[in-house]
Amino acid sequence: MIKVQRYHDISMGHRVVGHENKCRHLHGHNYRIHFTCTADELDELGRVIDFGVIKEKLCLWLEDNWDHRMMIWEQDPLRNALEELANDDIVLVPFNPIAENMAIHLVEVIGPQQLASTGVRLIEVTIDETRKCSASYSK
Ligand SMILES: [Zn+2]
Fold this sequence. Notes:
Bound molecules: zinc ion
Order of helices and strands: EEHEHEHEE
Mean pLDDT: 96
Largest sheet: 6 strands, mixed
Number of strands: 6
Radius of gyration: 16 Å
Low-confidence stretches: none
Number of helices: 3
Structural class: alpha/beta
Strand order of the largest sheet: 4-3-1-2-5-6
Shape: elongated
Helix content: 25-40%
Distance between the termini: 14 Å
């Protein structure tokens, strides 16, 4: 199988509900998000997809939707208070915002939505939360 990869860096806040340590606080990370794509057929040049299309469809989606925002779980007990204070800054998500769940969401929901017209599939995402810690999901 031929795969192509591209990463993108964003800064984002989050808070992990139920975390037993520091991640229960409002805080942020400089995330590096790695996308891995494949296709059933290569194009006439032998490519899975032009790297610029990954940028346009996936990296810019991160810029528009997650970068410099605060990711909050829909069921976070602080949700209403945070929305009252800074509604425009909040990205509400249907999962507790740990790196594993972010990777699953990107592969299962955002990839199919953003790449629908391209014939290319997002098959793996790795989220580097720090330089030392990452989570990957692939299908
Ligand atoms: Zn964190």
